[in-house]
């Protein structure tokens, strides 16, 4: 009896509605002035074991510039035929508030005919921001996770991607990006995804802790009236980021990847009353050719007589009824009961959308 009551108690707890999980403000958005910046550069990787660009014009021109900076001038018309060098593009991300002297990681990728960057070293290369200014200098030995080898008979073996490498702490910051977070009159905070209900809840939570500080500008942005001074603002911003918010339920969406057959259904998807029938027609054609031999001592020839058998079979249809306001679990159970494949689910969901039974946005990528 006691075990039965305990089981009933657990079942009642499981049936209770589960409250929405609270999320921190820092997980829902970020301050507008606190962001990273992308850096790019063009350089040369040397020290390759014959897997470089060879006669690629870009690397030849780049090596002329490198050798010129080192005091070595190549005669006009001389092609260095650089099999041990490769022209590369360097990319990096400059974190917010990065200061001169700090180091950041860089990614190095080939842009020509180089087959592998294993064992190579990047020659000192400036990294530019979107404004054309130099913000970092990159140099160092590459760590390449890929491997590519080839034989004289033309056979090749490639593991991962040998034409992309990475240099941990491979660039030194030379210039800081100016930030106005400490002196601007208004500091803005932006949601990652626009939602009027969520942005209103964030505003209310901030105003509860700091009355009159936050105002909604649109479905993404909050305007914060913070007191001046980096020390005071940093303390307030840290406390705002740790506030717990109950975000609005995500929009009802069904995302279908037509290339891979992947279907993602959000928890807010609901169905109006509908009946779904799924079945497929199987057509089979069997060819059984018969060899016909001529009579003895006749002038006839051996011939092949075609014999085709065509059969068509309609698989048993299954009809599943979906009740009003069906949830995500009920939708999945109904579709599984039909035995539908991902390709079939696309047709079923499109039919429900056209019939007006699917209360969700259907996104096909």
Explain the layout of strands and helices.
Elements: H1 2-15, E1 23-24, H2 25-28, E2 29-31, E3 37-46, H3 57-69, E4 85-94, E5 103-110, E6 121-128, E7 134-141, E8 147-150, E9 156-159, E10 164-173, E11 187-191, H4 196-209, E12 214-216, E13 221-224, H5 230-241, E14 244-245, E15 253-257, E16 262-265, E17 270-271, E18 274-278, E19 281-287, E20 290-292, E21 303-305, E22 308-314, E23 318-322, H6 328-337, H7 342-355, E24 358-359, E25 361-364
Parallel strand pairs: 15-25
Antiparallel strand pairs: 1-14, 2-11, 3-4, 3-6, 4-5, 5-10, 6-7, 7-10, 8-9, 11-13, 12-13, 15-16, 17-24, 18-23, 19-22, 20-21
Describe this protein with a few key phrases.
365 residues, alpha+beta, six-stranded antiparallel β-barrel, four-stranded antiparallel β-sheet, 22% helix, flat
Task: Describe the protein's architecture and organization.
There is one protein chain. By secondary structure, the chain is an alpha+beta fold. It is built from seven helices and 25 strands. The strands form nine sheets. Strands 3-4-5-10-7-6 form a six-stranded antiparallel beta barrel. It has a four-stranded antiparallel β-sheet with strand order 2-11-13-12. A three-stranded mixed β-sheet has the order 16-15-25, with helices on one face. The protein starts with a helix and ends with a strand.
- How many helices in DSSP terms? 7
What distance lies between the first and last C-alpha atoms, to the nearest angstrom?
55 Å
Mean pLDDT: 76
Can you summarize the main beta sheet?
6 strands, antiparallel, barrel
Q: Which percent range describes the beta-strand content?
A: 35-45%
Helix content: 10-25%
What structural class do you assign from the helix and strand content?
alpha+beta
The strand line-up of the biggest sheet is 3-4-5-10-7-6
Low-confidence stretches: 1-19
Number of strands: 25
Describe the global form. flat
* Radius of gyration based on Cα positions: 33 Å
